Amino acid sequence: MDPSVVDALRSAEGRALLTDATAHDNDAHGRAAAGDARAIDPLKAASSLRRAHPGANPSLVSAALSQVRMRRRARPRLGDIVDSLLMTDDGSEQATRTVAAELRAVRYLGSGATHVADLGCGIGLDSIAFARMGLTVTAVESDPLTAALAAANVEELGLADRVRVIVGDVTDDTVLATVLASADAVFVDPARRDPASRNEGRSARVTDPESWSPRWSWVVGVAARVPRTAAKVAPGVPHELTPVGGCATWTSVDGDLVEAEFAWPAMDSAGNNSVRRRALIVRKGEPTSLTSTIDLLDQAPPPVGDIGSWLLEPDDAVIRSGLVSDLAALLGGRLLDPRVAYITTDTDPGPSPLAAHFRVELALPLHIGRLRDALRERGVGRVVIKKRAIGQDPDDIRRVLALPPGPHTAVVLITRIGDDPWAFVCDIR
Ligand SMILES: C[S@@+](CC[C@H](N)C(=O)[O-])C[C@H]1O[C@@H](n2cnc3c(N)ncnc32)[C@H](O)[C@@H]1O
């Protein structure tokens, strides 16, 4: 897309094209959901839009159709804000989930920040969240088209008086010095994708932190210069990169681990900067957090013991932030094996967003024949298999179990205790 298309899409004609393309797209998807296999047809959509707007430039028609396609794809992650956004595929793939950006903005506000420098702002989702929280933002983006999209998005959302978008390379000392002169906080979301190498339509992930843009050592250098710096990183980031004296937050949204954030020092909605690790779990829009003031490498070994009446499967954000022992302590529980993230308790832990819980009906060393007999005796004809620290695939286990039909279902958790595989039959219903 050419940067001039951004203005054209925001003109009266561009807006009319977007409205009609959206209506056509909604109608096609509605018919597809009702069983019409041929309803979604990009060629038909283009010719219908061209017929309705005979004078429109064909490249603008196709840009409007692409925006509508990208908005549909981004909506599950970004929500209804997509209706006000213009984007590129790369920009939307890298954009922060709206809820994660909002919770981050709450932390910046709580830490006393007033003016955030968003260094590498992409299409602007973090800048928008900061501004919506009342913070002033200077957003810098090296790619002119992406910067134009960020500026358009900010303006469309009525935030132009709070967010200034600059085209520039933040690793240029002059650009950085100018931006930092007015900011009292920094946010960096380094690009971790390589648009030149694509895989199934998506740009490939770059795993080496020194190949991110900006590179990780540069981010750490900025953090040393500006108190209240945080960087968004991939949730699988190596724990060794965790900032010493800072805080690492892992966020999950409805069970998906979506990002990690490293902050120097810790930022907190309550202004508390002693937190070293945080699991932030968002379920149906509601956040819950579990924190520790102890660095990952300094934590005490977890309590370990025999199986109790309940088994808990912690959320991935709890596991990645190394807070499984803390959760066990909070619930008066223990781990079955110090290296495996299953917690067991003697009393009902009750429902919690931090961990799924299962009532243990039977514990036995894993032996397929014995497990099959036990399930059959209990009338279990259907199982949901969950596993940790065991190589076998749950579908393979279900296949070899070959359960005969039965009136009940059960959850079977399979794991290793020491060197021995165990099965726990839970929640027979
Ligand atoms: C992961 S994206 C940011 C996404 C953004 N947080 C959002 O939610 O929309 C990173 C962006 O940084 C930009 N970028 C990379 N290196 C940069 C640099 N040296 N200076 C300025 N921008 C840079 C990239 O072009 C990309 O748009």
From TrEMBL:
InterPro entries per record: Methyltransf_25, SAM-dependent_MTases_sf, Thump-like
Positions of the Methyltransferase domain: 116-187
Annotated GO MF terms: methyltransferase activity
Ranges for domain THUMP-like: 357-427
Biological process terms in GO annotation: 7-methylguanosine cap hypermethylation
Family annotation (Gene3D superfamilies): Vaccinia Virus protein VP39
Species classification: unclassified sequences, metagenomes, ecological metagenomes
Pfam families: Methyltransf_25, Thump_like
Protein name in UniProt: Unannotated protein
